[in-house]
Amino acid sequence: MSQLRKQGLTRRALLARAAAAGALAIAGPGFIAAPDAAWAVEVNAISEHEMATLLQMARDIYPHDKVGDRYYAIAVKSYDSEEQKAVVREGIALLDAAAKEAGFVNYLAAGWEDDRVAILRGIQDQPFFQAVRGGLVTGLYNQKEIWPIFGYEGESFSQGGYIARGFDDIDWL
Amino acid sequence: MAQAAKFDLNDDGVVVIVGTGAGGGVLAYELAQKGIKVVALEAGGRYYPEDYINDEWDSFGQLAWTDPRTTSGDWRVAKDFSGLPAWIVKAVGGTSIHWAGASLRFQDHEWKALTTYGAVEGASLLDWPIDPAEMAPWYDKAEAKLGVTGVGGRPRLPGSNNYKVFEKGALALGYKEVHTGNMAINSVDYDDRMSCQQTGFCFQGCKWGAKWSTAYTDIPRGEATGNLEVRDHAHVARILHDDGGKVTGVEYFDKDGNLQMQKARVVAVAGNSFESPRLLLNSHSSMFPDGLANRSGQVGRNYMRHTTGSVYGTFEKPVRMWRGTTMAGIMRDEARHDPSRGFVGGYELETLSLGLPFMAAFLDPGNWGREFTTALDSYENMAGLWIVGEDMPQAENRVTLSDTEDRFGLKVANVNFSDHPNDIAMRNHAYKVGQDMYKAVGATRTLPTPPYPSTHNLGTNRMSERPEDGVVNKHGQAHDVANLFISDGSQFTTGAAENPTLTIVALAIRQADHIAKEMAAGNV
User: Where does the signal peptide begin and end (chain A) (predicted)?
Assistant: First the structure.
């Protein structure tokens, strides 16, 4: 995601679109949204900057170019809580400080993935990074909605397994 | 079905079995068929095929043993999965719900590892006190029970996409013994179980019951004899003994958390290779200050987990390895003992697949960035195999009591493991063979993947001829306590290169015969 900004849209419109996409419930004082407002994520306990940074961080840790931002947003959504607030504040401050040292205004201001990844490599042993990365393993990859992007078909019992649905259909060997 | 038995806590004529997996579940049914009264205590709950879930994390939440454990040693699992050294099951049926079904007999020489390999520095190798000829009839019975394919006139399973890639690669390298395996998964209807529907999710419990598991064969059939009572959610705390050093009963926490005591004539422990030694160690007393049946100091030692690892290959076009049985085929040529390869013992290569969620968790734990994610981007075009090799028993690879306590206040198992140089040499050889196999079929990338949390847990109450070398004798009977038995993979003297379940089952059938004879003779 190159840019996160509040749109000229009303919150109600954003809510409606997000609900239609089935992605996220929107409520509360703030939100961040995709530039085309195809989705939006609310922020209650943490700041919009912190949520936007978390989202970019998630993308940079597990970048899949065919997986849209909304899935990464779902994966980090749980950080927007009273319990996580302090952890996020400290963690994002640490990340932005590392970005400053590398010559950027903050993490989001580093435009190339390589630059951001270099910043992340510098903090990858920190508990905050490890918590975000560890959470993504299930938070991102266990979203059934992204499985088709990888070709994974999930549950098969209800369809009678693959005995008549291509368990041995390889044709290029 | 007859009403399942219900035995009194004060009935001191029963055999108490701790655990209901491939060892305990089979022993329970075999004894019950002989008219012996059995109380089986199972820490987990009851699930049947209709309860199993075709979803990796949901199933893990349903079935896996996630009670606390601690780890140490230089194995990577201690870093990446420090609280989860094993991926095994806590349920009636135990890990026989989760296993992939590969049912291989040991090779003859593997019963005599010390004699065959010679002494290996740093390893505590020993010969089994059993001969291959002695085991042959028990293997026959085990294969018939499990309905193993490729033996006994039962056809093998058809080959899946993942297998076809594997087979072509193996044949291209000149390997000969390549087939869809000897599987306890029905290729045709057998023993009131239907044939495999190639659904995948073998690790999550077979929803068709095509794969053998004690959960829906031996356990309910044992209950139908009227001689078996299974108490689920019964967490065993301690085995008790009398002044004569014979065990007298078992203390356990019942499903309401109340401490109960079941009297027993014989106790058989089958809680897998972490919980079985843990229970003996937690059952220390003034007579057995270092743990029950541990005069040798061997309880908990010589933990083995097979030399494992995986290789995944990505290709230009789809493979869809998740379709069909998880373990869909095998290459056995490297299972031989041939020290010219730079290590003793051998290994099997078997196909394996993981769903996307577990692939993300296990492909390269802790790694991130595009090296990792581009591999997953090719998930649909991926084929996979798993290494199963004999690892060296080492005295310091061991289960001890941790300072951590579980919710009952019982000390949990700490699992210490470090690879032996022989293990590393074998793994590296297998990685190269696996990668070469896939390259021979045009792999665009190959991924030598580190071992997962262990499912083959062996050796922590090992069998030995001499009492000072191990915990149990050739019948799994404790050297120190005549009416105490070990009935799971922890009695393995060495691990061999084969998946252990068939041998666990064969030993359990054989042990039931021995226990019945000893009871009839009044020796126990």
Answer: 1-33
